[in-house]
Amino acid sequence: MEQTLIVVHGEETLPRWQAAFPEGECGTVEQARSQMGSSGLVWVSERVDEWPMLVRQWSQRGAAVVVLSYRPNQAQGLEALEAGARGYVHALANPEVLHRVATVVTHEGLWVGPELVSRVVGAGFSALGGAPRGSQQGLERLTERERAVALAVAEGQSNKEVARHLAISDRTVKCHLSAIFRKLEVRDRMQLVLHLSRSETVDA
Fold this sequence. Notes:
- GO terms for molecular function: DNA binding.
- Helices cover 55% and strands 11% of the residues.
- The chain is of the alpha/beta class.
- It has two domains: 4-112, Response regulator (Rossmann fold), CATH 3.40.50.2300; 118-203, Rossmann fold (3-Layer(aba) Sandwich), CATH 3.40.50.
- The protein has helices spanning 15-20, 29-33, 51-60, 74-83, 95-105, 114-128, 133-139, 144-154, 159-166, 170-184, 189-203; strands at 4-7, 25-27, 41-45, 64-69, 87-90.
- Helix 1 links the parallel strand 1 (4-7) and strand 2.
- The chain has eleven helices and five strands.
- The protein starts with a strand and ends with a helix.
């Protein structure tokens, strides 16, 4: 198991967290900053001030980050994913669930509730019918072919499917995606879908 760090607010520490990760370390933001970059798995409580910024900082340093929420909801879940979190789970989940989450996210997986996944995918489809106003601004930075690739990915198409649909090579699709990620300042396909669907999903 990766070295585990749990970032909490003040004295906030739950026995179930300690039971799940007896060798993990709990600490406040100030205590945890000294370990930034040395932990492979980081759990961040939603009660920590400016938690989205912290999630972004740790994820950019290669850590698998999970947000612990006491009142999980779709808007907050989307915010966690957009910040780079690999997981979003109830803070009161039992130790067995927390272990499963840890296994999934440290193997490049994503752990979120099924309703949130459905909402994200559904919003991605809606982008094909006309991206929301917030997304249009981002799409204007793309070339016509890059927009076509971005919207196809939002629909859920694989690189091979995009290549076949647009009559281009897999390698060209990858090149377009690299340019799209750079221009829209997103890290991967999931964040691209979130970027395209954010306005409609949050406002719904």
